[in-house]
DNA sequence: TATATTTGTTTAATCGATTAACCAAAAGTA
DNA sequence: TACTTTTGGTTAATCGATTAAACAAATATA
């Protein structure tokens, strides 16, 4: 019920010393005697002293908060990235503020404003699909705080980026499907304007060429990659006079939608058509047949993004440049493709 | 590159007025002339002034931040609750800080400390399964800021709570299974010490009695409700000499584990054994057969929890009492039970 | 005209912690 | 003894926004 929280002053009064001495004692300043330190810490404990973060942050010009923006938290990938990021940052004395854009540009802008307003010391973000206008991200840079992107990045911003090699991942998938005897491989990809999806598409095309397989335009489809759109797009492929014998879908959700339609149509997976997703969402191993997918090493991405942020702390001026950390991905082969 | 942010002083200097006048002008104080207000706002825009949240929060003793603690964000239920909570709070000028306990008591305590340290104006939480010791939650109360619990609550804390009627939900499930002709219904429930799981168990027992069905001890199992444990516990039920003809699992994840085993064993669902989960996770409609489940109205829960918090703002002293908002749940019938 | 009121703004204190600059007393040194 | 250095603090300014109190000028009222 004692709404009044104890402050440095309260401790100082009890011991009849200055608040400065108390502050230094609590921060283990060398100029404070061991005896005083002990006494101060003792009283601090007795009065249940909790430092006022706002005051110290204001004075030090540093909030020890890091803002995080993800498209959504209820995806195992982002949730795992955030969890690992948090672990690293907590150890370094930072707390994180998680916000989600729900893939909306407008919401993303609001989040950026809210984070800047809260005086975060840096922002780690994965961009919404919708985002094309980069002015809000430029705003972050103009604040002079570090900005680190992961997974969904953008070269034009010239900031640090952590992600996997999407181009190479496509090659891994196509190589695998070819090794399984596939000759006509389709790709339900994301929108080309999003860098990662563009890379997956490029990888798909180049890998197809590498194996001297047909690369008909009709086999390459751009999609929003939702479950529902996965259903729609597979229908198009099934309607072709010359059906594919394998489909590489750039997202597990859309892959699941495709799988549902295939099953409803009585088309055997993997016997008639092989299917590969992307992202290694937990449900890929839960559905029947389980879906082959790409694991993106969310733990590593989270940790590296956090460490990249921490790397800026030593420097007194933040000068960012396009500094990419690209991780290898991992193909998890499951029933849908073998 | 202008690392220096503009402050009230900068604006004041440009116009040769006091910072007090600038502050009042920006806050539309009645005592400032329209002319001055216009000029101030104009300059503020030109200099791209962004108020320093730390300073105003310190002065006003109010951070406009609300802390949220959830067991994990990558569950559709919690993610949806948080999303709706955020919407309501944002409209009222509040931002939220999301933290996850990962069902760990230790992590939860750390989160509480971090949130209090950040000077949040209130905390909305759903407790970790592990949590039995309530001292950290008492600590929140002792800070004099509102604490609102949802889904995973605890009567002893005497604070506001928003959730569904678990007892009644069990009745809905049993009623449904009985109407489908089931005569021997098992329950893989959570740990009794968690209130919501205890209520589900009580509801199960009472509903069974209501229908004059056998309530053997062997049909009621306590579980951690993970997917893996769902696999383990169904094995026990299958090993019984007198197998159940329906299983009500208190979590969708555990229900999925059970379903996997049933399918592996070649036991037909729902023909031989009917299955019902709890929580209406998206995958329940994605797997084959789709799983009947309980929808918990996450949107409502999120909104109501947020509104409950906002309700405290008018009062000058926070006096909390056990004030429960119990929502009706909804049974979503799918293939696994009919 | 003299006084009261309103308007619009300034002054200065404040929130709580930190820190540069200063200082007295104790200890060391020549 | 006289001077320097070290020890262990204190004083006061500061971070940036807010706000109670004060105040001058303009306007209203008697």
From TrEMBL, chains A, B:
InterPro entries: HTH_LacI, LacI/GalR-like_sensor, Lambda_DNA-bd_dom_sf, Peripla_BP_I. Gene3D superfamilies: 3.40.50.2300, lambda repressor-like DNA-binding domains. It holds the Pfam family Peripla_BP_3. One of its GO terms (molecular function) is DNA-binding transcription factor activity. Residues 6-60 form the HTH lacI-type domain. The keyword Transcription applies. Keywords: DNA-binding, Transcription, Transcription regulation. PANTHER family: HTH-TYPE TRANSCRIPTIONAL REGULATOR GALS, LACI-RELATED TRANSCRIPTIONAL REPRESSOR. This is HTH lacI-type domain-containing protein.
């Amino acid at each position: 019920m004692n709404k009044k929280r104890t402050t440095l002053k309260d401790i100082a009064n009890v011991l009849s010393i200055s608040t400065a001495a108390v502050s230094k004692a609590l921060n283990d300043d060398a100029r404070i005697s061991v005896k005083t330190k002990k006494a101060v810490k003792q009283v601090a404990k007795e009065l249940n002293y909790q430092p006022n973060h706002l005051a110290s942050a204001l004075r030090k010009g540093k909030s020890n908060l890091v803002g995080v923006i993800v498209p959504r938290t209820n995806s195992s990938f982002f949730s795992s990235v955030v969890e690992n990021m948090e672990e690293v940052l907590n150890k370094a004395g930072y707390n994180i503020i998680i916000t989600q854009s729900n893939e909306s540009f407008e919401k993303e802008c609001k989040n950026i404003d809210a984070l800047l307003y809260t005086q975060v010391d840096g922002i780690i973000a994965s961009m919404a699909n919708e985002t094309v206008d980069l002015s809000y991200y430029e705003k972050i840079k103009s604040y002079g705080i570090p900005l680190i992107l992961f997974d969904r990045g953008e070269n034009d911003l010239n900031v640090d980026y952590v992600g996997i090699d999407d181009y190479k991942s496509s090659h891994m998938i196509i190589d695998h499907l070819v090794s399984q005897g596939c000759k006509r491989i389709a790709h339900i990809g994301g929108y080309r304007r999003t860098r990662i999806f563009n890379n997956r598409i490029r990888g798909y095309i180049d890998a197809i060429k590498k194996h001297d397989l047909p690369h008909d335009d009709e086999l390459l489809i751009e999609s929003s990659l939702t479950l529902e759109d996965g259903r729609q797009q597979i229908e198009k492929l099934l309607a072709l006079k010359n059906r594919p014998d394998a489909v590489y879908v750039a997202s597990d959700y859309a892959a699941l939608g495709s799988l549902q339609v295939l099953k409803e149509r009585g088309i055997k997976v993997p016997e008639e058509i092989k299917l590969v997703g992307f992202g290694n969402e937990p449900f890929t191993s839960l559905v029947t047949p389980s879906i082959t997918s790409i694991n993106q090493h969310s733990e590593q991405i989270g940790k590296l993004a956090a460490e990249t942020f921490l790397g800026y702390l030593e420097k007194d001026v933040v000068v960012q440049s396009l500094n990419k950390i690209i991780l290898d991905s991992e193909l998890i082969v499951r029933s849908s493709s073998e």
